[in-house]
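#struct-help
A.M.: can someone run this one for me? Single chain, 326 residues.
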Amino acid sequence: MHSEPIVDGQGRRLGNLRLSLTSACNYACIYCVADGKRLQARNDSLSLDKLLLAVEYLKTVNPLGRLRITGGEPLISPLFDGFLGAVGRLGFEDVSLTSNGQLLSRKLPLLLEAGVKRINISLDTLDAEAFQRIARGGDLATVLDGIDQTLEAGLQVKINMVPLLGHNHDQILPLLEYCLARGVELRFIELMRMGHLARDDETFRRQFYGMAEILEVIGQHHPFSAVPSAPSATALRFNIPGRGHFGVIANASAPFCCSCNRVRLSSSGWLHGCLSSSQSHYLGDALELPRDLALSRIRELSRHALLDKQPTHFTGDLMIMKVIGG
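D.P.: on it. Structure tokens below:
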């Protein structure tokens, strides 16, 4: 197997793996799906052993230090318990999770046993009625209880909010105060042109609420200043003196594509190098090969995934975000 690093023309290497354990979700968020129907699991998922082997091979040919488990909603995946039980032997420096929190209290003992230290929880509002309008599923009180239990257990929690004009932009300050009071970092994620929003420019523009507006609202109530972020970080971070931090993932206002080192693997074995590209690469066949041949093939597919990345900014794609992981 070749030993030279896999690097693109901008010096980017794949260092961060996001694994989607399922395409299914118990939400049907308005920014993910247009028709309100919850996404169902695909019937072509790899077996747990094959999925673990795919992750192992990807880590062998790329300097993958971080693993984030995503979905859909990963906690509803039948692979979740088994994967968490085996993830420790894969040798990642950091294993984290993104969830909507509905099943968090039930799965918390498993997360602790697996050594997961960080979790991002999607929460777009503290208003129960608005929660139902946006998520079209789940229960707000259950999420809030799960957050409290996770914090009490000592895990680091971040909250992800997608501000939408006319839906929850009035929740920016309430959610920020909620997070600051608990020592939790809130991250505002600008609406992305994914799935139906890549086709429906009118709806996208009507709902988009960008970093400039977010910072203006916060600045009317809190002084804040920018603080350094890691070179490959997606979020711009800000400090409110004496209170805490918040971040903005400004994929439209302040693109970070030029430093992106993320790659996504679906539960069905497809490798996605970029959310803004419809290209994907199937790893499943390589898993049937002898190890040396498999690693050579996955090295080739990793190079293709890296070349799929946008050079400067996100342009959008028709893929539904939940299918390939947040």
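A.M.: thanks! The CA atoms of residues 182 and 232 lie 27 Å apart.
D.P.: also worth noting: The mean pLDDT is 90.
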